[in-house]
Design brief:
- Chain B: It is a multi-pass membrane protein.
- The structure holds two protein chains of two kinds.
- Chain A has two domains: about 40 residues, no CATH class; about 230 residues, MetI-like fold.
- Helices cover about 70% and strands about 0% of the residues of chain A.
- Chain A has a two-stranded antiparallel sheet.
- In chain A, strand 1 and strand 2 form a beta hairpin.
- The longest helix of chain A has about 35 residues.
- Chain A starts with 19 loop residues before the first helix and ends in a 5-residue tail after the last helix.
- The relative contact order of chain A is 0.12.
- The N terminus of chain A is likely disordered.
- By secondary structure, chain B is mainly α.
- Helix content of chain B is about 75%, strand content about 0%.
- Chain B has twelve helices and no strands.
- The mean pLDDT of chain B is about 90.
- The chains are: A mainly alpha, B mainly alpha.
- Chains A and B meet through helix 1, helix 2, helix 4, helix 5 and helix 6 of A and helix 1, helix 3, helix 4, helix 5 and helix 6 of B.
C-alpha cells in the first residue's frame, strides 16, 4: 500500500524540506490527535495502577490518618493469609472449569450449530445462546441466587421432580458448594458468547476443505476432528488466554451471590481486595492484593501478546 | 457459501437437535421464570416455583418501575454520555494513529492499546482517594470519566484495526485537493468507518449499562447509582418482596436484550474483531 508510513501533517510540505523548528512544532501539533486519549488513559488508568504499588507499601491508620511506610509487610501478609490461598484456588477452579465449558464445550456446540443445514436455525441458536451474555452479571447473579434458594428456587424444585431430593442443599450457603454454584452460573451466562466466536471462526473455514474430505469418505465427526478443530486452533488458544484473564478478574458474580461467604469459602482475589480495602479499611493490604491480581493478569496479557504476534489470529 | 460442514447423518441429527433444544431451554427457562416471577404474588413465589402466575397482575412491575426509575435515569445518562465521549475520543485517536505522522508513534500505540490489559480492580484503591480529592466521588461525572478512560483503549483498538484496512486512495485524493487532516477525518474517514463505529457504540452501551464494580464503589447516593447497583440495594430494601425484585430484574435486563436483537449484526462484528470481554 503506498504511503503507508504516513502522509504529512500539512504546512510547509509544498516547498520541500520545511524549517526544522517548523517541523518540530508541526510534530508537536500533530500530537493533538492522541493527546486526549493519552491524557485520560494515563491519568485514570496508568496513574492509579502505578500508585497502587506505592499504597501497597503503606499502612493507613484510619483513626489518626497517619500513613506509615512498612515496606513489603503487606506482601508478607499476603503469603501467610489462608484466604489468599482459598481465593487463588477459587480463581484457578474458575479458570479451569471455564476453559472446559466455555472453550471446549463451546467449540463443540458451535461445531454442531454450524453443521446445521438451515441458515435460519443456525442464527437462531447463536442468538438464543448469546442472550445471557448481554444481561448484566448483577441480574444473572441475583437470578441464580433465587434459583439456588431452597423453597423458592427451581433447582431444588427440579431435583424434587426427578426424585433426587436427597441431593438438594443450600447451594450458596455451604462452604463446599458455594463457589461451584457461582462458577456454574458463570458458565450458563458465558457459553453463548464463546459459542458465537467459534461460530464465526468456523464460518471462515473454506467449504472446499469439507467437500474434499467428504469425497474421501470422511464422516461428520471425522470432519470436525480433522478440519474444524485444527482450523480454529488459533481462536481456541486466544479464547483460553482471554478466559483465564477473565477468571482472575472475577468480581461481580461472587459479590452479588455470596460476597465471598460462607466463612470466606467463595472469596476470589477481587472480592477479598474489596473486603480488605472497603469493609476492613485496610487500603495498604488491599493494594497488595491488587498487585497480585496485576501480576496474574499481566502474565496473561503477555501470553496474549506473544500469541497474537506468533499467529495472526485477528485477520 | 461460507464454511461449516452441513451434514450430520439423520440418526445423530435427531439427537443433536434434542441437545440443541435442551441447551436452548436451559438458557431460556431461567429468564422466562424471572419474567413470570414478576407477575406472581409473593406467597405464590414461595408455594410452587414452577407454577404459572395465578392472576396476571402488573402491580409488581409497577412497583419495580417506580423503584428503579431513578436508577434507570442515572444508567441512561452515564451510558449515553460515556458512549459519546468514548467513541469520539477513540475515533479521533485511531485516526491519529493510522493517518498522521506522530513522533514516537509505536510508543503511543503501545500506551493506548496497552491499557486493555490493565484490570480495573487493580486501580480501585488509589482511585477512591483520587476521586475524593477531585470532589467528584459519588457523581455521574466520576463514572463517565472512568468508563471512558477504561474503554478508550479497547474501542481505539477496534477502530484502528478497521482504519488500517481502509484503502488510502480516498484520503490521498482529498489531500491533493487541499483538505486538511481535520477535514479528511470528518468528511472522508468517519463516514467510511460507520459500521465499526456502530459496533463500538453497541459494545460500549452493553458495557456501561451492565458495569457494576465502579458503580458500586464510587457512588452511594440513590440519585447517582446506576441500575446494577440499584438492583442490589433494592434487594436489601424490599426485604422479602421477592416478586418486586423479579420484576425489577426483568425491567433492567429487557432494554439490553432488545438492543442486542436489534443490532445483532454490529454486535457480532465488534465482538469477533475484538475478542475482548
Amino acid at each position: 500500500m503506498k504511503g503507508a508510513a504516513g502522509t504529512s501533517t500539512g504546512p510547509g510540505r509544498a516547498d520541500g524540506a520545511p524549517h526544522p523548528i517548523r517541523r518540530g512544532l508541526g510534530a508537536l501539533w500533530s500530537l493533538r490527535w492522541v493527546a486526549v486519549a493519552l491524557g485520560i488513559v494515563g491519568w485514570f488508568v496508568y496513574f492509579p495502577i502505578l500508585n497502587n504499588f506505592v499504597v501497597s507499601t503503606t499502612r493507613h491508620d484510619i483513626f489518626t490518618g497517619e500513613v506509615a511506610q512498612i515496606g513489603l509487610d503487606n506482601y508478607r501478609r499476603l503469603i501467610a493469609d489462608p484466604v489468599i490461598a482459598t481465593a487463588l484456588w477459587n480463581n484457578t477452579a474458575y479458570a479451569l472449569l471455564s476453559i472446559l465449558f466455555q472453550v471446549f464445550g463451546a467449540f463443540w456446540l458451535a461445531a454442531i450449530v454450524e453443521g446445521l443445514r438451515s441458515d435460519r436455525w443456525r442464527s437462531i441458536w447463536r442468538a438464543v445462546y448469546f442472550i445471557p451474555s448481554a444481561i448484566s452479571t448483577t441480574v444473572t447473579g441475583l437470578l441464580f441466587y433465587f434459583i439456588y434458594q431452597p423453597g423458592i428456587g427451581i433447582l431444588d424444585g427440579l431435583l424434587t421432580e426427578l426424585g433426587l431430593e436427597h441431593l438438594s442443599r443450600v447451594w450458596l450457603g455451604e462452604s463446599s458448594t458455594a463457589i461451584y454454584a457461582i462458577i456454574a452460573m458463570s458458565q450458563w451466562q458465558g457459553f453463548g458468547y464463546s459459542t458465537l466466536l467459534f461460530s464465526v471462526a468456523i464460518q471462515k473455514i473454506p467449504q472446499e476443505l469439507y467437500d474434499a474430505a467428504r469425497m474421501d469418505g470422511a464422516g461428520s465427526l471425522r470432519q470436525v476432528w480433522s478440519i474444524t478443530m485444527p482450523m480454529t486452533r488459533e481462536m481456541t488458544g486466544m479464547m483460553i488466554i482471554v478466559t483465564v484473564t477473565g477468571a482472575f478478574q472475577v468480581f461481580n458474580e461472587v459479590m452479588v451471590m455470596t460476597a465471598g461467604g460462607p466463612n470466606n469459602s467463595s472469596q476470589v482475589l477481587g472480592t477479598w481486595l474489596f473486603e480488605q480495602g472497603f469493609n476492613q479499611n485496610d487500603m495498604g493490604y488491599a493494594a497488595a492484593i491488587g498487585s497480585l491480581i496485576f501480576g496474574v493478569t499481566m502474565l496473561c496479557g503477555v501470553a496474549q501478546l506473544w500469541y497474537t504476534r506468533h499467529r495472526r489470529v485477528l485477520a | 457459501m461460507t464454511g461449516g460442514h452441513r451434514f450430520w447423518p439423520s440418526v445423530t441429527k435427531a439427537m443433536l437437535w434434542a441437545f440443541l433444544c435442551a441447551m436452548g431451554l436451559l438458557v431460556i427457562y431461567p429468564l422466562f421464570w424471572m419474567g413470570l416471577g414478576g407477575f406472581k404474588s409473593n406467597s405464590q413465589i414461595f408455594s410452587d416455583p414452577f407454577a404459572l402466575p395465578e392472576s396476571w397482575s402488573f402491580a409488581n412491575y409497577l412497583t419495580a418501575w417506580q423503584a428503579t426509575q431513578g436508577y434507570m435515569v442515572s444508567s441512561l445518562l452515564v451510558t449515553l454520555i460515556s458512549t459519546l465521549t468514548t467513541v469520539t475520543i477513540s475515533a479521533w485517536t485511531a485516526f491519529g494513529l493510522t493517518r498522521t505522522e506522530i513522533p514516537g508513534k509505536p510508543l503511543v500505540v503501545g500506551i493506548v492499546l496497552g491499557g486493555m490489559m490493565l484490570s480495573p480492580t487493580v486501580a480501585l484503591v488509589p482511585l477512591v482517594r483520587m476521586l475524593q480529592d477531585y470532589g467528584i466521588y459519588d457523581t455521574h461525572a466520576a463514572l463517565i470519566l472512568l468508563y471512558t478512560a477504561f474503554r478508550v483503549p479497547f474501542t481505539t483498538f477496534l477502530i484502528r484495526a478497521y482504519m488500517l484496512d481502509l484503502p488510502r486512495d480516498l484520503d490521498e485524493a482529498a489531500m491533493m485537493d487541499g483538505a486538511s487532516p481535520g477535514q479528511i477525518f470528518r468528511k472522508v474517514i468517519l463516514p467510511l468507518c460507520q459500521p465499526i463505529l456502530i459496533s463500538c457504540v453497541v459494545l460500549h452501551i452493553l458495557f456501561a449499562w451492565n458495569e457494576y464494580l465502579f458503580a458500586m464503589i464510587f457512588t452511594n447516593s440513590p440519585g447517582v447509582q446506576t441500575l446494577p447497583v440499584g438492583l442490589t440495594s433494592m434487594m436489601s430494601k424490599q426485604g422479602t418482596n421477592f416478586a418486586a425484585v423479579f420484576a425489577a430484574m426483568t425491567i433492567s435486563a429487557l432494554p439490553i436484550v432488545i438492543i442486542f436483537f436489534l443490532t445483532q449484526r454490529y454486535f457480532i462484528r465488534g465482538l469477533t474483531q475484538g475478542i475482548g470481554k
